[in-house]
Design a protein that fits this description.
The protein is mainly alpha-helical and 218 residues long.
Amino acid sequence: MPPTRRRPTDDELLDAACVAFAELGYRGTSMDAVARQANSTKPTLYAHFGSKEELFRRLFHREADIMRAALLPVYATLPGRPVLEMVQVALGAAVRYGVEHPHGARVVGRAVNGGGPDPSLGRELLRTLIDAIAGVVEETLRREGRDPGPLGQLLASMIWGAAVEATRAAATLDISTPELVDWQITYTVAGLEATMARVLAGGRPPLDPGQSGTAAGG
């Protein structure tokens, strides 16, 4: 009598879905594709999750919890540091998360950019992460008697973008984690000092849309 196939757990099916959704996107991923990735069957997926939309939602919430657990404790250590050091610490945590959880990071990134069943699915997570950094930067600058202007939100958004790019690079270039983290931090921070100096002096960020026409014309 052939051995009975073990019924997969929810987490095992979510692991397979994570790979499929990361590589193909929500619309490009079928339940058949997830079942193949899981070495399981489509009826089993429906028995566990009911629909592709619910499967993606469950996966997103699991990966969002992993991301928050990796980043928010690091962000809690930022108060009291110089602003540039805050950026280096926060950026390092974000890039390391992206490299260590490439599929989960891509799933979260797709959801944040509207690539899931509900365009609003990732907005709360993104706002939580960006506000956690921006608030500390702004509070620090005010304590120093400076008007932070848009700097807090700008730096926090750049950190998110750097983490997304690190995840993409890790998936396509096969670069080891320490190298990738160091390169991303060096590359990103190198452009921040000029941006910070300009904003704190009362100017606009170098990529301000109001200056785009002048740049294009020059």
